[in-house]
Amino acid sequence: MPVGLFRVCLLVITAIVNHPLLFPKENGTIPENTEEIIQKMKEREQSLRLEQLRLEQEIADQEATQKALEKAAVVVEESKEQKVRWDMWTALSMVIFLLIELWRQDFQEGNWQDTGGEEDDMAVLGKAFKGVALPDKAVLASFYEKRILGTTADMARMREMVEGFADDLLEALRSVCNRDADMEVEDCMGVGSMYENWRVRKPFVCDLIVPFAPPEPYCFCCQTWCSGDSFPPDEQGYGTIKVCRADEDVTGCICDKTKLGEDMLCLLHSQVSSTRPSSEMEDLLCFKNTQYLDADQVMKWFQIAVTKAWNRISHKYEFDLSFSLLDSPGALKIKFKSGKSIAFNLTPVVQYENSDVYFISHFPRSSLGADIPSSTHWFLTFAVYERRFIQLVSKTMPANACHVSCLQILSFLHGKQCSLTGPSGLTNYHLKTVLLHLLQARPSQDWAPEKLEARLQDMLKFLEKCLHEKKLYHFFIGNGKVPAELGFPIIFQRAEPLNLFRPFVLRRDIYRKMVDTFHEMLRNMSALINEYTVHIPLAHTNGIRKE
């Protein structure tokens, strides 16, 4: 605005200075055309006034625009501050609401826990279950003798028959495979409840694992979640298997990690060995366009190979062999002409280095591998070490120790409860893990046969505590107290403990179902046991017989 006023004043001063009356001509006479000059001056004055009005209007418009811009900027800034404040309050309110909701649900789920008071620990298993007592020793002894021992007497004969047939089948499989191109199959091994003598529910199913290796000159390079590389939390317990050449150093050379120029070659690896056709890797059962072993491809290859092997030896046997379950690729069933059948699982695995830890391609009849991240991720199984640990501690226990009896009874009760209320997230492997922890925590003499009732209650208390805390740690992973006699790999002992209940933390519906099933099992325990118990004389206090 000051600039505009200056321009107006300058025009007025110029007009005055140039006025003819102010500086007349030298003769001092007024020209004859005075009226004409006056008229021109009026017109000039009028034009100057119009120019002044135009300039003032422009200045006013500029000031109005500037004020509007400043006002708009202030409004925008205030709206931003208000929005930020609103977002902060909204986020804070949501956090408070979620915390209240989580606390409410946890309180409802955990209000049955015993919070204090001196109660009879031998008869009560939680605040909400006062009066729920375990049967006495005599009833448990009769139940075990009538129900458990009576149904497991023919397990050894079945194991022997299945193992003999599996060995014959695998030998035929080796003969039909191309040894220069197909995977090399090793001898099978029995794992699980049938080989640890605690399976009680029919039908009896033998679980056999079959290690295999790639043909020469290839080898498997295994990588686990605890080997140093970062794995997401949902991939803990898994690993990957890379198919490499035996003469390839997968860790020492950087040519596979760095893009070399077109005119540069690695002095350790030739171009032929570093670039492999995609079809060659697919023939080695790798995932498309990768070097990582594909579990789905392995199971397809194994099914085809087993079918060819059976066609070669089927004339030797008087029964039929078929795949029994579509969702379990390794599930096989032997069907006799009499109508009887025997089921067993034959699952290919990959050995981890020189240990008895194996990468397993598929979990039969189990939810452990239900949410595998991808077909190139393999779950690690420690079943061989679990079997060895049970055998090791059994050597130091009293005769007819009750540790296997506890697991058999609890497994039977859980199975009967699931048949009544439907399956839950709780599995027999969880029950077995509870037993393994207690075997390490308690001395050998505490597992005498007459202490069956106390040890069974210990298992229920331990499981109740794990369900309440949503934490049941894997027995071997992160356990630095594993006996040295087992030769367990140190890398897994130094790893972070693996919580087997972690999948249920976010899946509250499954967790709720699991807790409800456990509670119902406690309530129905006496009825389930009495259903399979005969009348017992009062003087009958003998211990429990075992195989």
UniProtKB/TrEMBL annotation:
Bilayer topology: Single-pass type I membrane protein
Pfam families, sorted: Mab-21_C (PF20266)
One Gene Ontology cellular component annotation held by this UniProt entry: nuclear outer membrane
Coiled-coil portions: 38-72
Nucleus in keyword set: yes
Highest rank taxon of the organism: Eukaryota
Stretches assigned to the Mab-21-like HhH/H2TH-like domain: 404-477
InterPro entries: ITPRIP-like (IPR026250), Mab-21_HhH/H2TH-like (IPR046906), MAB21L/cGLR (IPR024810)
Signal peptide: 1-20
Main subcellular location of this protein, as a coarse class: membrane
Keywords, sorted A to Z: Cell membrane, Coiled coil, Glycoprotein, Membrane, Nucleus, Signal, Transmembrane, Transmembrane helix
Subcellular location: Cell membrane; Nucleus outer membrane
GO molecular function annotation: protein kinase inhibitor activity
Keyword Ribosomal protein attached: no
Role description: Enhances Ca(2+)-mediated inhibition of inositol 1,4,5-triphosphate receptor (ITPR) Ca(2+) release.
Protein family per UniProt: Belongs to the ITPRIP family.
The protein's name in its UniProt record: Inositol 1,4,5-trisphosphate receptor-interacting protein
Gene: Itprip
